[in-house]
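Today's session is about reading a structure prediction critically. Students often jump straight to the picture, but the first step is always the sequence itself: look for stretches that repeat, for charged clusters, for runs of hydrophobic residues. Only then move on to the predicted structure, which in these notes is written as discrete structure tokens rather than atom positions. Here is the chain we will use throughout the hour.
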Amino acid sequence: MSVNTIGLIDYGMGNLHSVKQSLIRLNATIKIVTSPNHFDDCVALILPGVGAFDPAMENLKEKKLIPKIHQWVKEERPLLGICLGLQLMMESSEEGKLNGLGIFQGRVKKLPGNQGEKIPHMGWQKLNNEKKYPLISNNDAKPDWFYFVHSYWASPTNLNDLAASVNFGNLKLTALLWKKNIGACQFHPEKSGASGQKMLSNWLAWVYSKEIERS
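Below is the predicted structure for this chain, in token form.
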């Protein structure tokens, strides 16, 4: 197993193929994580996802992955959530009744219909970067376009966790959350062409540098 192995969490509701292929194009070594003992040898984890909140949490619980994810976060190991993966990192969701992972404080809310915008929120948008975070580099002089498709959005309690946003009528929607070594994006970097590849490349470079610091 490579010392640079990225664990891709498979709980039956992830867009695993496109994420995996994006990472392979960046020469990353991928390990599909489906059980608690698969976390070993990984230097970072990705929690992807498409679908509904409660079934996703039920699948994570059934596979006994939740305690290992919490332990990973407690150890401040790199973790990246994508789309539904971001929403699962919140405390709760208006879409369901189950508790989320609670990695970020806040609640997932249904997109409001009074903003003059189409729901689902679907298509390409530029990010408004709210703070520095490892998914962008100092060479990224201008915002890139990223692909969104969702009907719910994450509303963080701590606005310091908000790393990037997009405009949705008069509302500032969460596009990306970041704290310590944990990040999560509502958009799909693996479906965002060159912009997404650059962002994933930045994340991988940061992950590998953190692993060198640990060793």
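Discussion point for the tutorial: The helical segments are 16-25, 53-62, 66-74, 84-88, 193-214.
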